[in-house]
Amino acid sequence: xxxxxxxxxxxxxxxxxxxxxxxxxxxxxxxxxxxxxxxxxxxxxxxxxxxxxxxxxxxxxxxxxxxxxxxxxxxxxxxxxxxxxxxxxxxxxxxxxxxxxxxxxxxxxxxxxxxxxxxxxxxxxxxxxxxxxxxxxxxxxxxxxxxxxxxxxxxxxxxxxxxxxxxxxxxxxxxxxxxxxxxxxxxxxxxxxxxxxxxxxxxxxxxxxxxxxxxxxxxxxxxxxxxxxxxxxxxxxxxxxxxxxxxxxxxxxxxxxxxx
Length: 260
Ligand code: PGA
Fold this sequence. Notes:
- This protein is of the alpha/beta class.
- Helix content is 42%, strand content 14%.
- The chain has one domain (5-257): Aldolase class I (TIM Barrel, Alpha-Beta Barrel), CATH 3.20.20.70.
- It contains 11 helices and 8 strands.
- The N and C termini lie close together (7 Å).
C-alpha cells in the first residue's frame, strides 16, 4: 500500500507573511479531516522556518525545493541538505524541469544530489519528464528512462532509502495543459516497471510516483484514479488555500475510492 502524497511546490512565491496566511488558510480547511493522503509543502528557502512553525501541530511534511550536494564551503548562493534538515525538511525536490532547463542542471548533477539527499536521511522527490519536442519525436519513454537511470541508477537497493518519483512532462508545467490520464498513466507505469527491473518488485510496489503539470481541483480526481499515480506535485494551484485544499480532499477521496 502506498500512502498518497499531495505536495505543493510554491516555487519563487510567498513572502513570510503570505506563507503564514496560506498555511493558516489550509489548516482552517484541512485540519480535523480524516485524510489518508499526506500533505507536503515546499516553500522558498526564506519561508521554510515560518512554515515549519506554522505546521508544527500537523503531520504535514516540510519540503525543500533544491539543495547542493556538498556539506558546506565556498558555494555562494547554495544551500546544503544538512541546512534543510536542520530547519525541519523531510523531503527535497530534485531535478525539477525549471532547475534543468533554466539553471542548466545536468542528469549527472541530479544523480549527485540524490545521493547526498539520501545520505542526509532526506527523501528526494526526483522529477523526470520530457519536453514537447521529445514527446512529438516519440522519445518520451527513452528520455524518462535516461533521467531515471542517471538520478537513481547509481543506488544500491540494500542501502537506498526511500525516494519518490514525480513524472512532470515539461509541456504541462505552468501551461494549463495537463497530460491526459492515459498519457500520464503510460509513463507512470513505465517508471514503476523500471523500478522493478532496476531495484526489486518490492521497491516498485512501495515507491510513490506522483504526477505534476497543471494539476487543478478539476483534474486531480481523474489523475488519481490511474493505478500508477500515487499523488501530485502541484505548482500554480498550490498557491491558493481554497484550491489546494480542494486538490488534497479530492485526491484523497479518489485514492480511497480506488482502494489505494
Ligand atoms: P504547475 O507546476 O502545477 O504550475 O504546472 C508543477 C510543478 O512545476 O511542479
